[in-house]
Hints:
Layout: E1 4-12, E2 24-28, E3 34-37, E4 46-50, E5 56-58, E6 71-85, E7 96-99, E8 106-108, E9 120-122, E10 130-138
Amino acid sequence: MGGLDYAELVNVAGKGTSYEPDDVLVIDPTTALGFALSTEPRLRLVAGIYSTKPGMLGSTHLMNARLAPNEVPLALLGQVPCKVSAENGPIRVGDLLVTSSTPGRAMKADEDVKPGTILGKALQPLDFGSRKILILVTLQ
């Protein structure tokens, strides 16, 4: 999977090696223009997903430049694999997704989902547990 998203290189808290592709990332309010792993449910700071293989990558670097140790590609739009959890119930195709209490994972949104917390829509189901599924990133 991959290659169906638009991503931008962003700075993350700590080193980029402590993050994995398909992790859910949020805006880090403690770092100027930085991002971090999601760790709480229903965060309005949701920003996107660590892109596995961006189809288009926005960057201020030259094309062949090495990435800084604290940079990762953040998928902002498109179809990407995402780590999800069924902690808020089974996920069905088309369900809205929000951050979960499991670090770096998304979960099914509640019926009364709040604006600014939506990461995207599920393109694949998850009945129980946690794994990666394809989602459509549609930050709202």
